[in-house]
Amino acid sequence: NIGLGMLTVFQCTTTAGWAQVMYRVMDSGAEVAVPYFVLLIFFGPYFVVNLFLAVLKTKFGKAQSLFLANMVVTQDKKQNTLAAAAGWVLRVLGGCVERRRVAAQAREEDLARKLQESDGAWSWRVEYK
Predict the structure, then answer these.
(1) CA distance 129 to 111
(2) Are 11 and 21 in contact (CB under 8 A)?
(3) Residue 126 gets which letter from DSSP?
């Protein structure tokens, strides 16, 4: 059974219960398996740990790149939000200033028209609207 064999090799490389597996193989009459188990115990965990660390490094690298990309997008959104808010404030203030300018110009034109109608006679009475 290949699956059970792979599971047994994995169990030996994790060094959990490998001695019982070695003793069972030796009891079956295969004393030649001792060097196999010694090499498996010395080098197996080294490769498993390296494989595990390589996977972790890859996953953390991907997570870091996603985090940095998300951070850049978030900063862009914040800058766009601030720019939009500043634009809105400037439009509102600009609209107020423009309305006041137009109203002042209308008052000046109205006063100029009244002055022309009065033939130069100045009235001190001020009319408020």
Answers:
(1) 13
(2) yes
(3) -
Residue with the two structure tokens 């070695």: 22
Residue 51 pLDDT greater than 70, yes or no: yes
pTM of the model: 0.39
Looking up tokens 């595990």 gives 52
> CB of 12 within 8 A of CB of 18?
yes
Quick one: tokens of 53?
């660390």
Sequence-ordered list of residues with C-beta below 8 angstroms from that of 95, at least 6 positions apart, any chain: none
- Distance CA(50)–CA(53), nearest Å, equals 5
Give the span between the Cα atoms of 4 and 12, in whole angstroms. 12
**Residues above pLDDT 70, as percent of the chain:** 85
Alpha carbon 86 to chain centroid distance? 24
